[in-house]
Amino acid sequence: MSTQSNKGGRSLILVSVLSLLGFLLVWEALCRGGAVDPIFLPAPSQVLARAMSMSDQGALFYNVLASARRVMVGFLAAIVVAIPLGILLGTSRVARSVFDPIISFLRPLPSMSWIPLSLLWFGITETQKYSIVFMGSFVPALLYVMEATRSIDPLLVRAARNLGANRWQIMREVLFPGCLPQILSGMKIILGLSWTCVISAELVASKEGLGFMIMNGKEFFQTDTVVLGMVLISFTVLVTDLCLRLLERWILAWQR
Fold first, then answer.
1. Are 221 and 38 in contact (CB under 8 A)?
2. pTM
3. Which sequence ranges form a coiled-coil region, renumbered to this chain (predicted)?
4. How far apart are CA 166 and CA 160, in angstroms?
5. In angstroms, what CA-CA distances link 202 with 120, 190, 222?
6. φ, ψ dihedrals at 5, nearest 5°
7. What is the spatial distance between Cα 131 and Cα 128, in angstroms, rounded to a whole number?
8. For the CA atoms of the chain, what is the radius of gyration?
């Protein structure tokens, strides 16, 4: 049974690879045949050539690393604050009534709306980029943790209380492990949102990063650079998502 499942999985992977190759071949053929003007959409071969050129100059790795660093710092800062606060708000009606108006105010604000204030507060600095990622990721992460905490079976909490556990022990030994699978699933979505935030910040005010690379390519009509930046964003998000999945499998080994 497992052998058939493995064969089925490999077949699906092969279909996905062939689908991607077919898409790239059609794209290349349309560009080379003159159906698409390269100034509007360059061929994959042009994008690859631009990637090789920027790799030789060292600019490609530098821009990817700059954006990835900003995302991870802002994302991790948001998670460190959101998890304990979310568990508290998910279990305490008093705390929830205190913070609900603030969350309701912050929730609809997109990350772009924080850029003018962050520039006034921090200037064009790394801290400004971190703050944009933090503000764009914190509230969604907080809401995920709150909902995950509120989904825990109350019987488990009452059982822990009957066994003499205090509030801190209940949060640490019952609530946090119980909602961890949902939290980790939500964090993968929040990580993609963090990338959206950092690209928005880099498009407006930055001297390096993938958002800067895209904007710079647009200014000089280098559409191959623009497309390359877009491809690298998708690729980097896929890699970080894979790392999160591996971390999830390691942390939640007990689930299997």
1. no
2. 0.81
3. none
4. 8
5. 16, 18, 18
6. -65, -40
7. 5
8. 23
SS3 of 77-132: the string is: HHHHHHHHHHHHHHHCHHHHHHHHHHHHHHCCCCHHHHHHHHHHHHCCCHHHHHHH
**pLDDT greater at residue 215 or residue 8:** 215
- Give the total residue count for the chain: 256
pLDDT in tens, 163-215: 888 877 887 778 777 788 888 888 888 888 888 888 888 888 788 889 889 98
Q: How far is residue 186's CA from residue 243's CA, in Å, rounded to a whole number?
A: 15
Between CA 22 and CA 26 the distance in angstroms is 6
Domains of the chain: 46-252 (1.10.3720.10)
- Give 101-143 pLDDT, tens digit per residue: 888 888 888 888 888 888 889 888 889 999 999 999 999 999 9
Q: Which two tokens stand for residue 40?
A: 């509007």
